[in-house]
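The instructor's notes for this session suggest beginning with a concrete chain rather than abstract definitions. Hand out the sequence below and ask the class to guess, before any prediction is shown, which regions might be ordered.
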Amino acid sequence: MPRTLIHTPPVTTVERSAAAVSVAAAIAFALLLSALHIVQPELDPTWRFISEYALGRAGWLMTAAFVALAASLLGAAVALARQVRTRPGRVGLALLVIAALGVLMAAKFPTDPITLPVEAHTMSGRLHELGASLDWSPVGMLLVAWSLGRTQAWRPWRTRLLLAAAIPCLLTVVFTGIAATAGGQYGPGVYAGLVGRVMMLSYLGWFITVAVALRRRPVAASSPVSTSAEAPAVA
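After discussion, reveal the predicted structure:
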C-alpha cells in the first residue's frame, strides 16, 4: 500500500524572502571567491585551500565570503523550517544551522598556511579547523530533500532536490578521500583545493532549487495559524 504523503502549510512571503536571501548570499560567496583568484593568483587553486585567502592582502574578502555562505545556509534553514515535517528532515535543518555557525567560526579565526606542520598550528588555526569540521551541510541538504519529497506539495521537486543535494555529498566524499590519502602532505598534484572549491560552489545549485520551488508554490493569503489539523512531525 503506498505511503500517504504528508501535508505542509502554505508558503509565506517570509519563506520566499529567506530563500531569495539564501540564493543572493550564495551568489555573493561565489563572486567573492572568484575575485580572490584574481587578487591573489599566487595561491595555486588546485591544492591550496580557500581559507588561505584570508591570510593575504585581501583577506577581508575571504572573511566576507564566509559570512555570505553562512547567511545562505541560515536563509535556507529559515525558508524551510515550516515545510519540513519529519524528524530526519529537522536533523537536516539543524545540520544547516550548525554548519552556518561553523562557517562563521572559520570566518572569525583565520587558518594557518596548509604547508605549516601540524605541531606548529596556532590557536586561531585550530579553531578555524574546528569551525570547518562542523560543515556537514551536504548531509543536511540530503536529509531535508528526502523529507520534503515525502510531502504532497514538494513531491514534484523530489528528484531535483535529491540530485542537487547528492552532488555536494559526492564531492564531499571525494574531497575527504583526497585529504585522507594526502596525509597532511599537500602540494602540486594533490587536487584537494580544486575539489573543495567545486564542492563549495555546488551548494548554490541546491539553494536555487529550493528558492525556485518556493516561488512556484502559491503564497498564503495571510499568516497561517497553527491548528489541530496540521500534520504532526513523523519519523
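Then share the key points. Residues 223-233 have pLDDT under 50 and may be disordered. The first helix runs from residue 13 to 39.
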